[in-house]
Amino acid sequence: MTSAQVDKQYDGNEAVAGGTSGEGYQRGLGARQIQMIAIGGAIGTGLFLGAGKGISKAGPSLILVYALAGLVIFFIMRALGELLMYRPVSGSFSEYAREFIGPFAGFVTGWTYWLFWVVTGITEVTAASEYMQFWTKNADGWLNQPQWVFALIFTVVLFGANLISVKLFGELEFWFSMIKVTAIIGMILICAGILTIGFSDAADSASMSLLWSEGGFFPHGVGNSLMTLHLVMFAFMAVELVGVTAGESKDPKTVLPKAINTVPWRIAVFYVGALIMILSVVPWTHFQPGVSPFVAAFEKMGLGIGAAIVNFVVLTAALSSCNSGMYSTGRMLRDLALSGQGPKFFTKLTKNGLPLVGTSFSASLMLFGVWINYEFPGEAFDYVVSFATISGMWAWIMILISQLKYRRKADRGELPQSSFKAPGAPYTSMFALAFIAAAIVLMGVDEEARISLYFAPLWALILTVGYLAVQRRKQAAAPALEDTKS
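Structure (tokenized):
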């Protein structure tokens, strides 16, 4: 970044309704939408479905793992918040990596985060179409359609919504998040009623003592509890999405800090609180991998409608994730193009300030992925999906390293201080980096999760070749540019 850009640090005055940012985007996301995007980003299928596997491996101690990982996520988000208040841009962590670490780091971060959301979009739209089978398997008429039809419908509808306006994207995320939040709060209230009033079939055995009476708080040992760390970290993927909205927030100086500061209570309520209540009503031994703990809990309570409710919630969670993928991939491709690290045609915006080409390109790949999943539903696709975990963690690593480097420059007076400093930094950021490193090491130890690491060297090689090609093209274009000027 040039000294002129530093001097012209964003001061929040672009927050006028209907105005555009310096990047050409319209600031159409209000406080209500940003808050729910921040909340919804931390709640997805990793909680509604993935927690079943974690409970079966770690028992009640999974609560502690979620709490510890949640603390680290808060450190990551406060580091991101410090950078956002220094310079709120849509490229977010890719732009910060480029500025504070180097062009190659920005290139890797941008393309890796783009791949993360493309892969996530593929899996989530496919999952959504699978969830529809719950409603359509016994239906007649137009509802009785094969899975690929719903995958196509969902992708086209979400793609269309993302091309109308950023405000519509925000509204969709608002209501998707509202459904998820309502479901979790409803479950917590029901469990609280069982524990205090004593209704439903689970009342006779429900007790807080279930957290330690069924083989102890660490029934399989501390080691097995640690082996769930990568599952827990995956559940928190997309919490950083709020950073990508910075370039389109109406008042980022006010809205983004408030959204980031809600991270502790979000995790405390929706993860730790929900698991404490569920495991106090239903013994942890009743849960198994592949089965939503929410569904299992409803069945134990004798509430048959629970399966239908949870299926609807996970359907909206999958659609929410795919919607976020449509949004973020277009912005990330445009940021790469603006920095000269991607094809120039990705820089084009519609009259509404939307990255049409980048979003369309990403959506087409998501459709292609659905076709692959339909035609070749073997292990190869699952291996590709597993790469999402490590690619998502890369974004967190870049956020933390960029914040550490920014803080050093700001403390030396080389850059303006952020108005939203991360508490405890640099120590909290270094702790978060060590925690992520430990999670990656444990992924290598876990036979089931190890496959996630196998794709990293191949992707690194592809990115290295791509970066060298970009640099060679820039060097070739430089003499021609000089001749034009002369």
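Residues 1-22 have pLDDT under 50 and may be disordered. The CA atoms of residues 201 and 301 lie 5 Å apart.
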